[in-house]
Structures are given as C-alpha cells and as structure tokens.
Design goal:
There is one protein chain. This protein is α+β, with helices and mostly antiparallel strands. The chain has 7 helices and 11 strands. The protein folds into 2 domains: about 70 residues, Sulfate adenylyltransferase (Roll), CATH 3.10.400.20; about 90 residues, Sulfate adenylyltransferase (Roll), CATH 3.10.400. Belongs to the TMA20 family. It is found in: Cytoplasm.
Length: about 190
Amino acid sequence: MFKKDFTAGSKSKVKSSVARAVRAKVMETYPKLEPHIEEILPKKEQLDIVKLPDRVSLYCLNDKALFWQHMDDPIMPHLKIVHQYPWAFPRIRIDRGAIRFVLGGATLMVPGLTSPGGRLPGADGTEWGKDGKDLEAGDVVVVEAEGKETACMIGVLKMSTKDMKEKKKGPGIEEGHYVGDGLWKLDLS
C-alpha cells in the first residue's frame, strides 16, 4: 500500500467528537494500550488528520504519526507506536529468509511463518496471539523478524493462524505498513 514515497495531502484539525471516537476505537481494537492511551492520545491535545493517497487517513498529534486507516478497514498503529508498545499487539514472527521480501513490499507468504524460524500464536498457550488463542482472518497483527528486536511490519491477516498451520501455503498478509515504506519516510513537519 505504501511502497512508493508520497507527500502528505491536506492536514486538518479533527473535531473533539471524532477524536473521542478514534480514541474509543483504538481502545476497543487494542485493549492492552488502554493504560497508556493518555500518553498516546491525550484528551487535551489537538488531533489532526492528514489525507494520504488511496483514501488513507493518517491521525497525528503535532508532527507525530499515530494511527492510520484505509477507508473502513481497521484502525492501525504506525510502526513507531508499535516500537514503543510492542507487547500491546498480537504478533507473529517470520523467518530470516522472508525479511528482505517483507522490507521490499512483497506479500508475506505463509511458508515464511510456518518454517522453523517463524512463529504463529495458537492454542499451545504462547503469548504471541490474543492471550494464547489463534488469530482470525481480518485481525491486525504485528510482524517481527527472527533475530531482530523490533517489528518490521504491521498488517491484516488474510487467513487464520489455524488455517496457516494446516495449509502451509498462500498469502498471509498482502498489504501493510513496513519499515522503510512511504508512510515510514513521510515528513509531517
């Protein structure tokens, strides 16, 4: 979605009612962020919206990108927010071989997740998913890379982790926001 560099469109202030709705949606989608929501989206600060290409809305505070949303898709955090609060999001891990493809903007394929270096959450009680449960298609997930400390991508699952373990092929995440893409490089100042 953000493979190419682009410039930000118009920036406008968000009404307080819309800011409250965004805040509520963030807390509903990412409940582990609730104790830190005042740090991320303070009630007293003015939230701005920046229009991006392909009908993407970017919510920011001053010149700091916070969350983005494509039309009516789930609201997703910017990777810099993910790096600050990595434990607050469901996550999966790719093997070393998939890193260069993900950072090149390619579709994340299931074999990169089901190989020995990859890791999927599941009913085995791992802390990676939603409290040890399988993730469903349509869930927002953070992608970490084997041997790396920070997340490299965030996107929406195309199939459940249970199906990934069974089929072991196909696209896992088609589009998302990754380190080095246009959204990562976007200058809001």
